[in-house]
Design a protein that fits this description.
143 residues, alpha+beta, 6 strands
Length: 143
Protein backbone atom coordinates (compact mmCIF):
# COMPACT_ATOMS: atom_id res chain seq x y z
CA UNK A 1 0.00 0.00 0.00
CA UNK A 2 1.10 3.52 -0.68
CA UNK A 3 2.83 5.11 2.28
CA UNK A 4 0.05 7.19 3.79
CA UNK A 5 2.01 8.09 6.88
CA UNK A 6 4.99 9.49 5.02
CA UNK A 7 2.55 11.51 2.90
CA UNK A 8 0.93 12.90 6.06
CA UNK A 9 4.37 13.76 7.40
CA UNK A 10 4.87 16.11 4.44
CA UNK A 11 1.68 18.04 5.29
CA UNK A 12 2.02 21.06 7.58
CA UNK A 13 0.50 20.45 11.07
CA UNK A 14 -2.59 22.63 10.58
CA UNK A 15 -3.82 20.75 7.52
CA UNK A 16 -4.43 17.33 9.12
CA UNK A 17 -6.38 19.14 11.85
CA UNK A 18 -8.53 20.88 9.22
CA UNK A 19 -8.99 17.58 7.39
CA UNK A 20 -10.09 15.76 10.54
CA UNK A 21 -12.54 18.54 11.36
CA UNK A 22 -13.90 18.50 7.80
CA UNK A 23 -14.36 14.73 7.88
CA UNK A 24 -16.11 14.95 11.25
CA UNK A 25 -18.54 17.71 10.32
CA UNK A 26 -18.97 16.33 6.77
CA UNK A 27 -17.74 19.48 5.03
CA UNK A 28 -15.19 17.17 3.41
CA UNK A 29 -16.15 13.84 1.87
CA UNK A 30 -13.76 11.33 0.33
CA UNK A 31 -14.79 9.03 -2.50
CA UNK A 32 -12.25 6.43 -3.57
CA UNK A 33 -11.93 6.08 -7.31
CA UNK A 34 -9.06 3.59 -7.41
CA UNK A 35 -7.01 1.83 -4.78
CA UNK A 36 -4.12 -0.56 -5.30
CA UNK A 37 -0.85 -1.38 -3.58
CA UNK A 38 0.83 1.26 -5.73
CA UNK A 39 -1.68 4.10 -5.84
CA UNK A 40 -4.77 5.70 -4.36
CA UNK A 41 -7.03 7.98 -6.41
CA UNK A 42 -9.89 9.83 -4.78
CA UNK A 43 -12.28 12.71 -5.19
CA UNK A 44 -12.63 15.03 -2.22
CA UNK A 45 -15.71 17.24 -2.13
CA UNK A 46 -15.82 20.27 0.14
CA UNK A 47 -18.81 21.99 1.76
CA UNK A 48 -19.28 24.23 -1.28
CA UNK A 49 -19.67 21.13 -3.50
CA UNK A 50 -16.32 21.73 -5.22
CA UNK A 51 -14.52 18.55 -6.14
CA UNK A 52 -10.77 18.04 -6.09
CA UNK A 53 -8.90 15.07 -7.50
CA UNK A 54 -6.24 13.52 -5.28
CA UNK A 55 -3.59 11.01 -6.33
CA UNK A 56 -1.24 9.44 -3.80
CA UNK A 57 1.53 7.09 -4.88
CA UNK A 58 5.17 6.36 -4.08
CA UNK A 59 6.25 9.39 -6.13
CA UNK A 60 4.23 11.74 -3.89
CA UNK A 61 0.80 13.29 -3.54
CA UNK A 62 -1.07 15.55 -5.94
CA UNK A 63 -4.30 17.50 -5.60
CA UNK A 64 -6.09 19.64 -8.15
CA UNK A 65 -6.79 22.46 -5.66
CA UNK A 66 -4.98 25.83 -5.84
CA UNK A 67 -3.62 25.42 -2.30
CA UNK A 68 -1.70 22.29 -3.29
CA UNK A 69 -0.36 24.02 -6.40
CA UNK A 70 1.09 26.93 -4.44
CA UNK A 71 1.92 25.43 -1.03
CA UNK A 72 2.29 21.67 -1.35
CA UNK A 73 0.24 18.86 0.16
CA UNK A 74 -3.18 20.20 1.21
CA UNK A 75 -6.03 19.26 3.53
CA UNK A 76 -7.60 17.23 0.71
CA UNK A 77 -4.53 14.98 0.56
CA UNK A 78 -4.58 14.75 4.35
CA UNK A 79 -8.29 13.87 4.28
CA UNK A 80 -7.68 10.96 1.89
CA UNK A 81 -4.83 9.65 4.06
CA UNK A 82 -6.86 9.99 7.25
CA UNK A 83 -9.95 8.37 5.74
CA UNK A 84 -7.88 5.39 4.61
CA UNK A 85 -6.17 5.08 7.99
CA UNK A 86 -9.54 5.29 9.76
CA UNK A 87 -10.64 2.23 7.81
CA UNK A 88 -7.73 0.32 9.32
CA UNK A 89 -8.63 1.67 12.77
CA UNK A 90 -12.29 0.68 12.40
CA UNK A 91 -11.19 -2.89 11.80
CA UNK A 92 -8.83 -2.84 14.81
CA UNK A 93 -5.83 -3.46 12.61
CA UNK A 94 -3.75 -0.38 13.45
CA UNK A 95 -0.32 -0.87 14.98
CA UNK A 96 0.32 1.53 17.87
CA UNK A 97 3.74 2.82 18.87
CA UNK A 98 4.52 1.86 22.47
CA UNK A 99 7.34 3.00 24.74
CA UNK A 100 9.28 0.38 26.71
CA UNK A 101 7.32 1.41 29.82
CA UNK A 102 4.03 0.31 28.19
CA UNK A 103 2.74 3.81 27.36
CA UNK A 104 1.21 4.14 23.90
CA UNK A 105 1.95 7.46 22.18
CA UNK A 106 -1.69 8.12 21.20
CA UNK A 107 -2.99 7.15 24.64
CA UNK A 108 -4.79 3.97 23.52
CA UNK A 109 -5.39 1.98 26.73
CA UNK A 110 -5.54 -1.55 25.32
CA UNK A 111 -4.06 -1.75 21.82
CA UNK A 112 -4.52 -5.05 20.00
CA UNK A 113 -1.30 -4.54 18.08
CA UNK A 114 1.72 -2.46 19.10
CA UNK A 115 5.32 -1.90 18.13
CA UNK A 116 8.16 -1.48 20.64
CA UNK A 117 11.47 0.15 19.68
CA UNK A 118 10.14 1.42 16.36
CA UNK A 119 12.28 3.11 13.71
CA UNK A 120 11.73 5.57 10.88
CA UNK A 121 10.57 2.54 8.92
CA UNK A 122 7.24 2.98 10.73
CA UNK A 123 6.47 5.78 8.25
CA UNK A 124 6.47 3.26 5.40
CA UNK A 125 3.73 1.12 6.92
CA UNK A 126 0.15 2.00 6.10
CA UNK A 127 -1.33 0.41 9.23
CA UNK A 128 0.57 2.35 11.90
CA UNK A 129 -1.66 4.59 14.04
CA UNK A 130 -1.52 8.10 12.54
CA UNK A 131 -1.96 9.75 15.95
CA UNK A 132 1.02 7.82 17.34
CA UNK A 133 3.14 8.85 14.35
CA UNK A 134 2.03 12.47 14.61
CA UNK A 135 2.94 12.63 18.30
CA UNK A 136 6.28 11.00 17.56
CA UNK A 137 7.17 13.27 14.64
CA UNK A 138 5.78 16.50 16.16
CA UNK A 139 6.80 16.35 19.84
CA UNK A 140 6.82 20.14 20.25
CA UNK A 141 3.22 20.44 19.00
CA UNK A 142 1.87 17.65 21.22
CA UNK A 143 3.87 18.43 24.37
Amino acid sequence: MTSLLSTLREVTPDRPNRAVQGLRDHTLTVTLVKQSDAEIRAIVRNGEAKEYRVIINDAGALCSCPDAFYRGPCKHVAAVCIAQLQQHQAHGTLIHLMHDNGVVLCGEASPRRFWLRWTWNALNWSDVCPTCVYRWTHPAVTA
